[in-house]
Each structure stands twice: as C-alpha cells, then as structure tokens.
Design brief:
heterodimer; A: mainly alpha; two-stranded antiparallel ribbon; two-stranded antiparallel sheet; B: mainly alpha; RNA_pol_II_subunit5-mediator (chain A); transcription corepressor activity (chain A); Prefoldin_subunit_alpha (chain A); repressor (chain A)
C-alpha cells in the first residue's frame, strides 16, 4: 500500500510537471501569435497607405526631425517607394509593385500565424490530457481504475495440474512417497527432487516396478531360489553400497528414490507392511534387486533384507552368509539405535558391544581361517530334522528350535555372542567348522550335559536331509562320548550365547 | 580513494559542461542561419516579383549602392546557397558534439556511482 501511495505521488508529480511544461509551451505560442498579429496589422495599415499615397502628387506633412522635433515639409514622388527586401537589400519600385511585395510578405506572415495556431491547439489538448491523467492518478473525478488480478489463470493452471494428477493410484502413492521422504530425512530429498522430472513418466515407472515387486514377493514366498537369487542381488548391491556409500551417502539415479519409495508404498497399500523400518528396507532392497536387474546403476543406501531372512530361517534352510550377515548387522543396529534406518555398516567397523569385538576377533581367537558358519542353518536343519527324530532328542531339538528361532529373529537375540556365532556361520554350512568354533568356546565353558547325544545331531544335521541325521546320530552315537567334552562345551556355549 | 574519485568526477563534470556549452553555441548558430535562410528566400521571391525597371540598392554600411536586378538576384542566390551549406556543417558538428556529450555523461554517471560507493564505504568504516 505504501508503495502504491508512493507511486501515486510520483505519478502525480510527474503529471503535474508535464502539465506545467505544456502550459509554458502554450504561452510561448500565444506570445508569438500576438507578435505576428501585430505585424499583420502593420502590414495592412501600410497597404492602405500605399493605396492612397499616389492619389496626390505631393503631400504637406510634419516631418520628424530627430526624436523630439518635427518640421513642416512636403512629401514628393509619392509613387517611388524604396522597399527593404531583407538582408540589407533595397528595391525602388512603384506603389503598386510595393503592394505586390506587401502581399507576398503578408502571405508569409499568414503562414507563420497558422503554424503557431496549430501548435497552440496541440499543446492545449496535451494540457487537457495531462489534467485528465492527473485526475486519474489522483483518483479524482469520474475516472475509475479497473484492475483485474490474474489469479484465475493460476487457478486454471492448478486445476489442470490436478486433472493430470488424478490417476487411480498415483496421488496416494505420491503422498506416501513424500511421507517416506520426510521420514528418511534428507536422504531422499535430493534424489526425489532430481527425480521429479515428469510426473507421468515416474508414475509409469512406478507401475512397472510395482508389478515387478509383486512378482518377486510371490517368488520369495513360494520359492526359495528366488530368495537366494534375490539375496545374491541384494548382497551384490549391498556390497556395492557398502563400498560406495560408506559415509552414509546415498547414490541415487534420477527417479530411483521415488521408484523405491513407490515400491515401499506398494506393500503399504497391499497391507503387507509391518510398520517397521525394516520392512521398508526390505522393500527397498527388493526394489534394489528389481532395479538392479533392470538398471544396473541403481544403488540404495538400505541394504538389509530382514523380511527375507526371516522367511528363510522360518521355512528354508538355504540361508546364505550374506543374508545372515545382514541380519546380524540389522540386529546390531537395532540394538544400538532402535531403528534400522541408516547405512548398513560392516560389522567389523562397529564395535559397540562385546559381541562385536568377539566377532572381530573370532578368527584370531580360534585361529580358524574358515569364516563363520551359520548356526541358524544348523539350527534350522535341526529343527526341520527334529520333527522326525526320537523323543529323547525332541526336547533338545525343541530347544534347538528355540535357539534357531531366537537366532533367526534378530529382535529376539539377547546375547551378542549368539549373533557372533550366527555371523560366523559360513554359507557352506560345514558341520565340522562349528565344532571347531565351539571348541574355541569350550575352554570357557564347563558343564555336564545330559544331551551329548544331541550334539552330534547338531553337528551332522545341517548338511544332511532330515532323515539322514537319524542314521548319523546312530553312527555318531558311539563317538559321542569322545566328543562329549567338546560337544558339551559347544552346546553349552550355544546355550550361554542364547542366554 | 574517495578524494581521487571526487577529483576525477569534478574534472569530468567540467568537461561535460564545456561540451554542453559548445553544443548550445552551435545550436544557436544554426538557428540564426535558419532565420537567414528564410529571409533570403523571401528576398529572392520579392526580387522575382520586381522587373528591371526598378532599381535595386544594397546597403553597405551607411551607403545605399545601386545594384543590378540580375546581379542582386544572383547575389541573393549565392548567399542562400552559402547559408544552406553552413547549416549542413553546423548540423554535422552538432551531431558529433551530442555523441561526445553522451559519452561524457556516461563516464560521469559511472564516476558518480563509484564515488557514492566509496562514500558509502567510508561511511560504513566510520
């Protein structure tokens, strides 16, 4: 408002000045007109004089003698007139010739006068306009300023945008994506901004990815191979991520964030989400996989797939090292942070609990070059095989099952040592290695155990089918006492770890 | 810094003022010439109206000198041409002067800005 007032004032001042200038010009013109009118009058008088002068041969007149005196005299040669032509030129001519000249001059004067009149008229009109302008700016008089703000166009534009956006699933997804981005913090912001190239393209891509994800989910549920494959992809991608995104930075290609988030939202919509961040990560990992399959350059910061791991440990025995590793990493993270958000770190780098140290130094302690073996695998095998075994071992197997379950579920693992053991589980699932490992623990554990027979089950179960361990149990049974101390320690160690 | 700029500014300002004066001079001269042109035109026309019987005089100082009509006409025509040429010359001169004055004006404005900036800085410092 202040600005408007200022502007108005300025305009008023300018208009005022303009009016003043116009008036000046008009006045000047009027002065000139007066002058020329006078000249014209003079010329007319002269004309009359010229006409009457040749009537008489001579005239008696009072001749002016200087500025103050007059002298009586005669005016002769009344027809001889010396005319000043201009520019110091004179011409002697008769009265009639003089009249002609006069006429010529009068013509000139008349033209000058006409020009002046025209200019005065113009400037008078301009003055009138400026006065009107003054009235307008001053908001006086009958003039009204009509202003129309251009909001309507904006509304139309927004309406158009809304129309474009009204696709069946697009809007909620977009909102979910926005929410996810907000939840993740600044992670997805840059990528999402980059990704917002064209809404339509993104939605099409989202649809494609959703379909892919659904297919993969089905695969994961029904087929273990799919999971393994997916795990492979995740491991590769996760390893890539770890390599590239150590600092917690997220590598995103245009639109990937939105795609991944779209994928994340899909399970939300489908109702598969548990509401935990882990699930998000899982889906993101899935999205990773999918994208990895379709676009090899996509990288995600989230690497863990606890969902798959859970599924695998529950049903399948084909757990992979990377999966378990990821699981344990997630478990560690959860213990530490309480959320599974953030970059997946190598367990080696984070030493916040004793288990971490243990894990780090495991190989050193034992002097075992072989990587960790998956207890989960053995446990799961035991679980799977336990159902077919004898009653005596049933309780043990149940315990094992509980162990397995606890181990498999990162949330439930209480002791860090168990994590260490699970982490150390090798993908191959060599039964011998855990023995050695447990041997390492054996030095610390002392126990008399009624379930030495079960230990051979543990050791033998993983590689063999559920039925086979029974036979092996029988075979190993005689060997049990020998290995008892070792196995005891191992079992105990596991128990302790479980505790 | 500010003082140097101030000096520069003053010198530039003087130059510009000089230029403006020259421009105005040439403008006035041109206007005079314009008037002469009109006058001579009238004379020429009136001479055309006269015939040879009339004697034509030219005023040279306090003396009226008899002139031939034809001669007078020729003289007037020559004068007219001369005046027109002068006008042309003055016009070109005026254009150049205007260009120079514009350049000077720009320089002056830039210097003024610098000076203001320097003054502003000095004020800030103080």
């Amino acid at each position: 408002m202040a600005e408007r007032n200022k502007r108005n004032i300025e305009v008023l001042q300018g208009v005022d000045r303009l009016r003043v200038e116009h008036k000046k010009v008009v006045k000047g013109c009027e002065v000139q007109i007066q002058h020329w009118e006078k000249v014209k009058g003079d010329y007319e008088a002269l004309e009359d004089q010229l006409k009457t002068l040749p009537d008489e041969v001579s005239y008696d007149i009072m001749v002016p003698f200087g500025p103050l005196a007059f002298m009586p005299g005669k005016l002769v040669h009344t027809n001889e007139i010396t005319v000043l032509l201009g520019d110091n030129w004179f011409a002697k001519c008769s009265a009639k010739q003089a009249q002609k000249l006069l006429e010529h001059r009068k013509k000139y004067v008349r033209s000058a006068l006409d020009d002046l009149h025209k200019t005065t008229k113009n400037f008078e009109a301009r003055v009138g306009f400026t006065e009107d302008l003054e009235k307008l700016s001053g908001a006086k008089g009958d003039y009204v300023d009509i202003r129309e703000e251009v909001r309507s166009i904006e509304e139309f534009v927004s309406k158009g945008k809304q129309r474009v956006a009204l696709k069946p699933h697009s809007k909620p997804k977009m909102e979910a994506i926005v929410k996810m981005e907000e939840e993740e913090g600044g992670e997805g912001d840059g990528g999402s901004r980059r990704g917002v190239l064209s809404e339509e393209e993104l939605w099409a891509r989202l649809d494609e990815l959703e379909a892919k994800e659904k297919l993969e989910e089905e695969h994961d549920r029904h087929f273990g191979s799919a999971d393994t494959n997916g795990n492979k992809d995740t491991t590769s991608s996760s390893s890539e991520e770890e390599k590239e995104g150590d600092g917690g930075g997220h590598h995103r290609v245009n639109g990937h964030d939105e795609r991944s988030e779209g994928k994340m939202t899909v399970p939300h919509n489908s109702g598969q989400v548990n509401g935990t961040t882990r699930d998000r990560e899982e889906e993101e990992d899935k999205g990773e996989e999918e994208e990895g399959n379709g676009l090899p350059t996509i990288y995600f910061s989230h690497t863990v797939e606890p969902k798959k791991v859970r599924i695998n440990t529950g049903k399948n025995t084909m757990l992979k090292f990377s999966e378990l590793k990821e699981q344990k990493q997630q478990a560690k993270r959860k213990k530490k942070n309480g959320t599974s958000n953030g970059h997946s770190h190598h367990g080696l780098h984070n030493i916040t609990t004793p288990t971490d140290i243990y894990k780090l130094f495991v190989d050193v302690k034992n002097g075992e070059p072989i990587p960790r073996k998956s207890i989960l695998k053995s446990r799961s095998r035991e679980n799977s095989g336990c159902s077919d075994t004898s009653e005596s071992s049933a309780a043990d197997f149940e315990e094992r099952r509980t162990f397995g379950r606890t181990l498999s579920h990162d949330e439930n693992t209480c002791s860090d040592t168990s994590d260490g053991i699970t982490e150390e589980d090798s993908p191959t699932g060599n039964p011998l290695h855990p023995i050695r490992r447990f041997e390492a623990f054996s030095c610390t554990v002392v126990e008399k155990e009624p379930i030495p027979s079960s230990i051979p089950h543990l050791t033998i179960a993983p590689p063999a089918l559920p039925t086979i361990p029974e036979r092996k149990l029988e075979e190993v049974a005689p060997e049990a006492p020998r290995e008892a101390p070792k196995r005891v320690s191992k079992f105990k160690a596991a128990r302790l770890q479980q505790k | 810094m500010a003082e140097a700029i101030q000096k520069k500014l003053q010198s530039e300002l003087e130059k510009y003022q000089q230029m403006q004066k020259d421009v105005s001079k040439s403008m006035s001269a041109r206007q005079k010439l314009e008037a002469q042109v009109t006058e001579n035109n009238i004379v020429k026309e009136e001479l055309d109206l006269l015939d040879t019987q009339n004697t034509v005089y030219k005023l040279i100082g306090p003396v009226l000198v008899k002139q031939d009509l034809e001669e007078a006409k020729a003289t007037v025509a020559k004068r007219l041409e001369y005046i027109n040429g002068e006008i042309q010359r003055y016009e070109t001169l005026l254009k150049d002067m205007e260009k120079k004055s514009d350049q000077h004006r720009e320089v002056l404005s830039s210097l003024q800005q610098e000076y203001q900036r320097a003054q502003g800085l000095a004020v800030g410092k103080v």
